[in-house]
Amino acid sequence: MQLERRAEPSRALLVAAPFVAVVFTLLVSSLLVAWAGAPVGRAYALLLEGGFGSRFALTETLTRATPLMLTGLAAAVAFRARLFNIGAEGQLYLGALAAVAVGGLTGGTGLDVSPWLLMPAMLIAAMLAGALLLLGPALLKSRFGVDEVVTTLLANFIVLLFVSAMLDGPMKDPSAMGWPQSVALQDALQFDKLIERSRVHTGLLLALALAVGLWALLRFTTLGFEIRAVGANPRAAAFAGMAVTGTMVKVALLSGALAGLAGAVEVAGRTGYVTLDMSPGYGYGGIVIAMLAGLNPLAVVAAAVFVGGIQVGADSMSRAVAVPTYIADVIVAVALLAMLVATLLAQYRLRLTPRARSA
Amino acid sequence: MGTAWLDQIASLPFWIAVLRIATPLILGTLGVLLCERAGVLNLGIEGIMVAGAFAGWLAVYQGGGLWTGVIAAALAGAAFGALHAVLTVLLGLSQHVAGLGITLLATSLASFAYRVSFPKVDSPPTIEPFAPMSALPLPVLNAQTPLTLLALLLVPLLAWVLYRTPLGLALRMVGENPAAAEGQGLSVARLRSGAVVAGSALMGVAGAFLTLSAFNAFYFNMVNGRGWVCVALVVFASWRPGKALLGALLFGFFDALQLRLQEGALVPYQFYLMLPYLMAIVALVVVARRAAYPQALMKPFRKGER
């Protein structure tokens, strides 16, 4: 059995690929639902209803999708340049910590800074924290050829330990009854609610604007062209006179900043302070979302809503029938692999003949 | 503080701990090494270790023997390895993304299966783990379980296969120059798939060491980055089994040391916990300039396509 490139990738198949992948995913997952002993049809109905079926469900899904959009964009732009940033989880936490470090300034120190000044300072601090965290692995990659996948993965563990030390020490909220929890942002720095009687906050608008911005950047600017060129073929890009290392650094700063911003947006929009469990894997989820979206920033928005909805829906379903919430992670993982295969099969066809003519 | 930690290093329990910490890393690193020598990056290791830890523990909990548990873990690892082989060898998908997908899938499936099997438990159910061997001449080895001995024996075995057998030559060839291997009449797809399945089985056993030897129960975050450390250790080891053992022992040394430094520490304990991860990054940087990656690593091979 072997693969043969289609003369022309079928447009119909490329469009159908995500849908085929989702149907396949639901079929596979239904086996697990049945194994858990729940009626499959009812479980899926509950999952859909819990994720998308009511005003409450939709607003919860959008709240969940907001940080996922940002980490999804972070992964999408990095992967476009073939910088495999798997460290969005750590960048998110460091961004959240930086946001609270700046945003908590006026708390007890007597500093009186206007929220109008402090708000942008807080967001910039978060972006800087995330960007600088990824700069290290990016430089190690371009200077020394150290694989960035491993360094960014290991950095996630280091950052989480650092956050834990900060929450036990200098940034601990003394009034939190011993829970490792940071001091809270002042009210003036928390995002406004976007929709009444819900948790959807203005961070969603920020994420949407950045998705459009990133799409435009990739499509219409020189930097965007360089990013795509470096991702497609770094040697050819260097031959054409592009500064590959420079582009890699810019991509790292951009990607890290987006992931760091996700941390600030979660703090300012939802939690108000940093805890060690504030992210249920938003960083890793962002990678899946970027892949599901084919690394297209606009499609990232849709993929984030899909993944967010599955997670919110699975939470709500598992309360009603005996299916563990981990089904959401299984669905997302299967969807990722199925999507990869479906996209590939739109470009290649499988041949069962043992040996085709040799090239 | 003072020189108390020096006394620690001179003590037998310290070196017993080093070897115990190193065991899953030896097994996992050999697994990654086997895959990469054949040209396939396997980032599924982190999840495969979780799946192996769970499968091995479950088999024993259901009444199987401890070695049945080890085999169950190897089979679970091999199954995910087969999936990784289909995705990366047969279909030629991105080895990075497919591997991360396998990690997500294996981790979530193990967690799901655990929760389905034990919906309402407050403390994780336990098993009777491997006992230390007692009939061996070396005191450091005597305190270990048979899985450690297995890991130590696998090092020369893998080295012998890779460097002294036709199979090993073929495996290294498909990792360096698959087109030439195919020209010699070797099947790149079969060799690579076989290496990934066997390597993943080792990763499964690495995970099972945690539930069947180091601890006696399954916890959700018990692998905790050990898989990623193995991926780093393979680069550090220049893809050689002997150096992989050395790297794993070095890592075990620093991990055991940081545990002991935590007692009466001046700095928050989290900074000591960071040490092993930092060491892994430092090790990568140190060897980076002369790292001799297998030439065809991460390059899918499709017949007749350049």
Beta content of chain B: under 5%
- Determine the mean pLDDT of chain B: 91
Number of domains of chain B: 1
Give me the strand/helix succession of chain A.
EHHHHHHHHHHHHHE
Which class do the helix and strand fractions of chain A yield? mainly alpha
Helix content of chain A: 55-70%
Largest sheet of chain B: none
Give the helix/strand class of chain B: mainly alpha
Number of helices in the DSSP assignment of chain A: 13
Spatial separation of the terminal alpha carbons of chain A? 16 Å
Number of strands of chain B: 0
Helix count of chain B?
13
Mean pLDDT across all residues of chain A, rounded? 89
| Major sheet strand order of chain A | 1-2
Largest sheet of chain A: 2 strands, antiparallel
Distance between the termini of chain B: 61 Å
Tell me the Rg of chain A in angstroms.
Answer: 22 Å
Oligomer: heterodimer
If you consult CATH, what is the topology of chain B? ABC transporter involved in vitamin B12 uptake, BtuC
Q: What's the number of extended β-strand segments of chain A?
A: 2
Descriptive terms for the model:
heterodimer; A: 359 residues; mainly alpha; two-stranded antiparallel ribbon; 13 helices; 2 strands; B: 306 residues; ABC transporter involved in vitamin B12 uptake, BtuC; 71% helix
Secondary structure blueprint with pairings:
The complex is a heterodimer of chains A (about 350) and B (about 300).
Chain A: E1 2-5, H1 11-35, H2 40-52, H3 55-80, H4 88-103, H5 115-144, H6 148-168, H7 203-220, H8 222-232, H9 234-239, H10 244-271, H11 282-292, H12 297-320, H13 327-347, E2 348-351
Antiparallel strand pairs in A: 1-2
Helix pairs in contact in A: 1-13, 2-3, 2-12, 3-7, 3-10, 3-11, 3-12, 4-5, 4-6, 4-10, 4-11, 5-6, 5-10, 7-8, 7-12, 8-10, 11-12, 11-13, 12-13
Chain B: H1 4-9, H2 12-37, H3 45-61, H4 66-90, H5 95-117, H6 139-142, H7 146-164, H8 166-176, H9 178-183, H10 188-214, H11 226-236, H12 241-261, H13 269-288
